[in-house]
Structure formats: structure tokens, C-alpha cells
Design a protein that fits this description.
The protein is α+β, with helices and mostly antiparallel strands. It has 2 helices and 6 strands; from the N terminus they run αβββββαβ.
Amino acid sequence: MFATVSETLLQEILAACREKVFMKGETLFVERDPPRGLMVLWRGGLKIYKLGDTGREQVLDIVMPGGSVAELPLLDGMPDPASCQAMED
């Protein structure tokens, strides 16, 4: 994602980053939460999902290290379209 970004801009982006640790099963965000910024996964795994009207979970994506989540709300300013949960510590 950042392969074509200049070194100067990359350093600015890195300076604005902060590390957050989530435990297995912990929710990062819930559908309709306000945007909070781009998240890039360093290690572990994340599950992106929606809950149906009956409460049944529909997994939309599994995110592995190097992947990112919450891009859409960052770009359009709208609430999160799905929920996200840590699959590992």
C-alpha cells in the first residue's frame, strides 16, 4: 500500500502511528461505529464480519499480517460497514 510513498511522507505516516494489542476474541470495532483511522495488521489475524437479522455471523474477510482494515470509513467518513474481531492474540 505504501510502496510508492516518498520516504519523507512515509516517516510522517509512521510518526502518526501507534501500536495497539488486541487479545483473541476482542472486538476492534463494530458495524456502524464512527471511523477511527486505518489499521494495519502487524501480526495475528482479524475477522471482518456482519451479523444477520437473526444474529447469525457472516464472515466477509480474514485479514492476515500486512493487511489493513477500516480503509473505507477513512476515505468516505461514513460509519464502519462491518465488525472486526481479533482471531489471535
